[in-house]
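Reopening this ticket.

The earlier resolution said the output was attached, but the attachment link was broken on my side. Pasting everything inline this time so it's all in one place.
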Amino acid sequence: MDNPRVVIAFAFYVLLLSGGSPARADDGLPQTDQEPSVSSLQSGGGFFHDWFGMVAESQAEQPHWITPLVTVTPRLEQEFRYDVSRQVQPNGTTVLENFGGSKGLEIIPSRHIELIFSLPPYIVRSVNGVPDGYGDVSFLLKYRFASANEEHGNYIVTAFLAGSIPTGSYTNGTLDATFTPTIAVGKGWRDFDAVTTLGVVLPVDETNRIGRQIVWNSTFQYRVLRKIWPELEVNSTFFSQGPNDGKKQTFLTPGAEFGKFPLWHRLGLTLGAGVQIATTQFHTYNHKYIFTVRLPF
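Inline output:
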């Protein structure tokens, strides 16, 4: 995978983190068990100390579940994320590989807001005549309306606004820009949590050619041995207009995440893997293997 952007991005995050104070990493436990105290993060002053102190306060006010493989979490996260996936047909033929997964830098600029700046993924196709290339640039804004950590209710309600810009090379992107408003809610009971999101993908133009999609994702997770999070996701898309008008596809996605493992100062490591399995007669691919690497800070 020849992609120097990942190295440049990682170097930037390491430089950024050098301003942080030493701290233990969060492994999905409540702040009182694992995260550094806000006072320790703010000691010494300076922009980064104040920023990380605000981030710690914000994350202490929400549940400490781990981010699912596919479903966008309603929790506010601060991390760098890189996903790799491979789409496979029933006969075992790989039809598409995605390096990046439209993931990237996630930051918390204020107490109730998260911004995600996604790197354009690199798409490798096995279909003859279709060139490889980069996909679209995308971004996402989260606003957390209400939340409570494990000691005060264990729930969260967040709204998203995602968008994409048609920067993809060849046929590796959409025909026009899109935006996706979404609502997300989650509730936890001790080591179990459930999250559901409902959004609609709306093209800015070319609606008759692109179509609209209603996207409904649900995730069920259970924490085992503190750092292991097996999960089951249900990922459904309902198509309106466009080439798939009136059709529906649903995938079941069993998987697991592992972490967070402390690395250095606030920097940690989380890994995850799973497979999407088509359960409806119509599906744009049969199944997809997913691997994720995250560096929370």
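Reporter confirms the inline version is readable. Residues 4-296 form a domain with the Porin fold (CATH 2.40.160.40). The first helix runs from residue 4 to 17.
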